[in-house]
Amino acid sequence: MDIFVARQPILTRDEDIIGYELLYRNSKKNAFTEIDGDVATTELLFNSFIGFESEKLSKGKKLFINFTRNLLLKKVPCLFSPDNIIIEILEDVEGDAEVIAVVAELKTLGYTIALDDFLLNDLNKSLLPYADIIKVDFLLSSKKQREAINKIAKYYNAKLLAEKVETRADFEIALNEGYDFFQGYFFSKPIIVSTTDIPFHSYGYIRILNELTSDEPDINKITSLIEHDLPLSYKILKIVNNAAYATRVKVTSIKQAIVIIGLNELMRWLTIISLKEQQLNSTLAEEIISQSLFRGKFTELLGVKLYGENRKAECFMLGMFSLLDTILQRPMETILKTLPLSTTVKSALLKEENELRTLIDIVEATEQANWEKLNSYSNNFTPSDLTTCYNHALNWANEITNLNQD
């Protein structure tokens, strides 16, 4: 499944880039598609921070992202570091008591607040004390309106950003009117970048949400539900690696990843996933997802026999992610740069020599019915062991696939 993000630079008076606004796109056509604002922003966030390596999108600069009222109240911006994003509050967001409370909290946490497409009215004036940047649409605003906004910005010590600057003349006018930042087709049309992602087939996240909202959430049950879902497992690792939870610790199990994220943040992410999933029409064959589940269980069971119970979770992750290059149509080496897996698991997935590489060799030989190669491992396990692991893994994968289709 292809995913898309449009990116437009924001410049200083000296025409240096200070950041990029990320814009929702759902194809290579460089235009906004009219859909629900919550869905547009959640899909944009998901594609930008999970589908892509966010550093490649931002080039070390801050990313300007629009947030709806609903997403502000859910505190979705808190999923991302204030060092990475600037929160743009959409022009139709009313500055009522609920919104002001959230915006005030975001300010104390160090986030930069921008008011998008600003024109003063009774709905948004209460947001002004919290604004660091006021964005003004140069195509729709008159000189008189801009003069009034300029006075407001000076009073609240906010920077002015001129957007939709289409010509050199527009740029010169904005410079003379005292604008600090500039954005528009005069500098650059939004550039669309794309990559591939694993689409969701299941509705397993509903069961996870139910467990998360129970009186006493069971982290082991939540871990088990996530492990049963390859796309979700992959997303969880991407979240750990790319969002506000960046850690130098290499993840060796899904449970460890959940602990790093925390149950409250996991619930917010699953809300984003559920919104995004409603928009997906996947053409990816379910068979490859089922095969990944089989591999995860097979390598887990065989890994316990070869390396003991303490390597169980690591062996499961190895098998689960062993087909990512096929699913994403990208080199495994490129994919692994975005995942916080242990060095041992990464090396095995790259088929470098280490103790876990044996599991990859065995699972591939089993799928290919390569008896000669399997016989070379006969000192490690018996044919009966292999048959038992194979049948158990196949039944388990089929049960999980059927459950996710119910």
Explain what this protein looks like in three dimensions.
An 8-stranded mixed barrel has the order 1-2-3-4-5-6-7-8. The two termini are 23 Å apart. It has helices spanning 37-51, 54-58, 69-73, 97-108, 143-155, 168-176, 204-212, 219-227, 230-242, 254-261, 263-277, 286-307, 312-320, 324-328, 332-336, 343-349, 357-367, 371-375, 383-405; strands at 2-12, 17-24, 62-67, 85-89, 112-115, 133-137, 159-163, 181-182, 191-196. Helix 12 packs antiparallel against helix 13 (312-320). The protein has 19 helices and 9 strands. With 406 residues, it is of the alpha/beta class. Helix content is 49%, strand content 13%.
Give the termini separation: 23 Å
Shape: elongated
Report the C-alpha radius of gyration, rounded. Answer: 25 Å
Which percent range describes the beta-strand content? Answer: 5-15%
Q: Structural class of the helices, strands and pairings? A: alpha/beta
Order of helices and strands: EEHHEHEHEEHEHEEHHHHHHHHHHHHH
Individual helix count: 19
Strand order of the largest sheet: 1-2-3-4-5-6-7-8
Question: What's the β-strand tally?
Answer: 9
Q: Determine the mean pLDDT.
A: 77
Describe the main β-sheet briefly.
8 strands, mixed, barrel
Low-confidence stretches: 25-35, 189-194, 278-285
Helix content: 40-55%
